[in-house]
Amino acid sequence: MKFAGFSVLVLFCWLSHWVAVPSAVASELLLPVQMLRGGGHGAEVGAPVVRWWSGRAVLVAGDFRDLFPWGKERGRVRAMAPRVAEGKEVLLCADDPRPVVAVMIGEDEYRTWESLPAYAEKELSASFRLRYVVETPEKSGDFAGMAALAEARVLLISVRRRALPRDQLQAVRDFVGRGGAVVGIRTSSHAFALRPGVAVPEGRAVWPEWDEEVLGGNYQGHHGNDVPTTAEAVPGTRHPVLEGVPEGSFPTGSGLYINTPLRAGTTPLLIGRSRGTERPEPVAWVHRTAAGGRVVYTSLGHVDDFRRPEFRRLLGNAVRWAAAGTSH
Questions:
Q1: For the chain, N or C: smaller number of CB within 10 Å?
Q2: Is residue 318 helix, strand or coil?
Q3: 10-residue block means of pLDDT along the chain (328 residues)?
Q4: What HEC string does 200-247 produce?
Q5: What pLDDT is attached to residue 173?
Q6: What distance in Å separates the CA atoms of residue 29 and residue 84, rounded to the nearest whole number?
Q7: How far, in Å, CA of 204 to CA of 154, rounded?
Q8: Which pLDDT does position 74 carry in this prediction?
Q9: Could you tell me if 117 and 229 lie in one domain?
Q10: Peptide bond just before 261 cis, omega within 30 deg
Q11: 68 with 132, same domain?
Q12: Contacts with 48 (C-beta within 8 Å, 6 or more apart), sequence order
C-alpha cells in the first residue's frame, strides 16, 4: 500500500461500532500503528509505509508525515513518539474487549525502543491493546502517553535510571497502588533510581525503592557484559510463566545481574550462570505488590535475547499471566 504524503483516512477494524475521539485525547493513546520509511513490500524508496499489526485497533486520520516524528539523540533513534496532528480526528473501536498493556520505554543501552515494540506488535497485539509510553527525545525522563496507565491492566516496562516529572511518577505509583500488574525487563530494576550522588533535578522525582517494593528484587550491579552467561529454569519449578519455555540452559545476551538474595515473597523461575563465577543468580521471578498486583521481572532483555525463543516465550507468558491476575 502506497502513500505519497497526502492526507488520508484509514479505517481498519473488525468491529462495527466506532467513536470519534478529539485529537488531544487521541495523542495520549499512542495508537498501535508503526510507520517505517521506505523498504516495505510495494513501497517506493523514501515513501511512508504504514503497517497495521492487529485487527481491532487502528484508525487514523491525517497526514502520516505529521503522525510519527522520529526523535533522534546522539545520532540514533530513541523511541517511537507518535502523536496526532492538530485538528485531526482519530476513530477508535468503542467495544474492543482486549485488555490494555502500557509499554513504557526509556533507556539508552539495550535498544529496547526498537526491540520491545517490534516484539509486542508481533507477539502481543492479537490479545492486547498496546499503548506506548515513550520518552520524549528532547527531555530525558519526560514521557509521552502517561494517560495510558489509567486504563492499563499491565505495565510492560524497560526504563533505566530516570527521574520523572512528579506527576508522571505519581501516575506510576497510582497504577501500582490500584493493583496494576507489572512486567519488567533488564534495567527496569533501577528504572527510577539515579546513581548514588546524582542530584534529583528540580521538579523531578525518583523511586529508589521500586526494585524492592514492586519487583521484589535486590539489584546490586552486574558481572561483565563480555563474560558468557547462560540461563535455565530453576530445577523442579512449574509455573505458567515457564509454560512452553524450552528446557535446558540457553545463552543470554549480556552480563549477569546480581540480585541475591531476593526479597521475601518472590518465586524464582530462571537462574543464570556467568563463566568464572561460582554463585548462580536469579534472572526471572514472580512477585506480588502490596496492593495484590502480579509482577514478573527478568534481568534478560538484551537485543540478542529478543532473538531467543526461550526469552520470547517467557515474556509473552509473563504478560498474559500478569494480566490474568487483575480486572483493572
A1: N
A2: helix
A3: 36 37 36 30 29 34 34 30 33 71 93 94 94 88 95 97 97 98 96 94 96 93 76 94 92 88 95 87 96 97 95 98 82
A4: CCCCEECCCCHHHHHHCCCCCCECCCCCCEEEEECCCCCCHHHCCCCC
A5: 98
A6: 10
A7: 24
A8: 28
A9: yes
A10: yes
A11: no
A12: 3, 5, 35, 36, 37, 64, 65
- Which CATH number belongs to the domain containing residue 210 in this structure? 3.40.50.880
Assess contact for 178 and 291: CB atoms under 8 A.
Answer: yes
In terms of Cα–Cα distance, which of 128, 297, 308 is closest to 212? 297
On the CB side of 1, how many CA atoms lie within 13 Å of its CA? 9
Q: Which residues pair with 134 in a beta bridge?
A: 105, 144
Distances (CA, A) of 168 to 79, 105, 118, 145, 222: 18, 14, 25, 10, 29
Last residue of a domain, one of 93, 117, 148: 93
Domain count, the chain: 2
Please check whether residues 49 and 107 belong to one and the same domain.
Answer: no
Domain boundary among 58, 74, 93: 93
Residue span of the structural domain in which 77 resides: 8-93
Place of cell 515473597: 265
| Measured CA distances, 78 to 33, 128, 153, 265, 290 (Å) | 17, 24, 25, 35, 33
